[in-house]
Write a structure and sequence with these properties.
single chain; 231 residues; alpha/beta; Rossmann fold; Arc Repressor Mutant, subunit A; 2 domains; five-stranded parallel beta sheet; 41% helix; elongated
Amino acid sequence: MYNILICDDEKDIVSALKIYLEAEGYTTFAAYDGREALDVLRREKIHLVLMDVMMPALDGIAATAKLREESNVPVILLTAKSEDTDKVLGLNVGADDYVTKPFNPVELCARVRSQLRRYMQLGGGKEDDGVLTIGAVSLDEKAKEVRRDGETVALTPTEYEILRFLMRHAGEVFSPRELYRRVWNGEPYGAENTVSVHIRHIREKLELNPAEPRWIKAVWGRGYKFERSGT
């Protein structure tokens, strides 16, 4: 069945939506602001997002715009009747539909089914083979195995998750604090030292010459990236 992410800062609404959707056979995930929603999307295979517009930290409009940089998963906005402008903004930044609060559970479930059907017909729900390959480096997400030039590279679970994240976002630069948030899912206290140690260990195992890394490169004053070309 399909995985649905519910994002709303009102916990009662999230709980109610979980009841309706799980009764229809869906698996649900919860988030209570836009940042949490983006974190869940990066960790889990999500097929549809129900996104509230008015939220703290990162609102539904901004979260949808950010989500569209990374995914084409369907987004249904949850809006109040007075938020007509936000409905238009949401659709303009990439939302697929909206449901007005207080919502009718039957209507909401019908809209969810409609968006999922369209998404699957367009091939959006197809699983890839789970193998990331960039140059001589390959990472098998199902086997949890990393190879360089066909040779297995033994990484710890944390090293594997760092490499997986960087390869999935090859060419993008991430600060140590951001890497810590994405991989450890916690507040980045002491992140610089923790991340730099793990990066050094990955380089020692992955790079032919760790002193002159070919793959995981530091961008001075900004952070780390996995080089797309590996040159």
